[in-house]
Amino acid sequence: MVHLMTKPLVKLERDGHVAVVSFNRPEKLNAWAWGPTNELCAIADELRFDTSVRTVLLRGEGRAFCAGEDLKPDTDDVEERHPGRSAAERTHIAYERARYCFDRWKVVDQLPQPVVAAIQGYCLGAGLELAMLADIRIAATDAIFALPQVTLGTQIVGGADLRMVSELGASRTKMLAMTGRRFGPVEAERWGLVQDVVAPEVLQQTALDLAHEIANNAPLAVQGVKRAVNFVAYRGFEEAAKFEAMASSMLWSSDDLTNGFAAKARKEQAAFEGK
To answer: Which domains does the chain have, with CATH numbers?
Structure first.
């Protein structure tokens, strides 16, 4: 019997002291789901204890960094995506999923090694959540960012908005998260979401060069800088994460969310009623 090798959803390669972690669903613009989450976090668990790795480069194969959550091609049905026999059970399951997301992404967010993200094309929803797990973000001139969750009737689940507060400020974060509007790399750099913008053809090399530049420095000192800065930047994050998980979980039983997903399937604007 011939066993076919399954393509990894997230792959790990090494370039000297740099670990290159690539989202590997280019045919779906690296749309995100539980499978890639589990693979990414398994890689992070491995890298956490690998002292030969001094920097991590986070990137996406193909035309996009990550186009957002994988909305299954055959259905946008909310009940199938977030099951429950009652509104209470649906809320309970959604809360546990949100807590799980925070718990698992923490292993990436709190890697001892600095993480550099190379962002091209779409970086939407879950893609921006992933980008915010990095310490430094480099964008190509074709990058497109957005947090479109409110246009579907839900809110951010994985903490991107909470992380953005320390990078962009509270009011800017509210504007982006409350409108769901798209913005480009020029605005992203001006607001502090990305630290450099380069041409698409040099993005990967620029990000890799930066990762190597950091890796050439004393690793324990570099990791100390990351811990000290993060202590200030993310003070209160754990408490806010619990609140966000609970607040978002209740929305999965709302009529607005059901209407929002159905309207998206029809490529229409939902008429939200606040119920």
So the answer is: 10-265 (3.90.226.10)
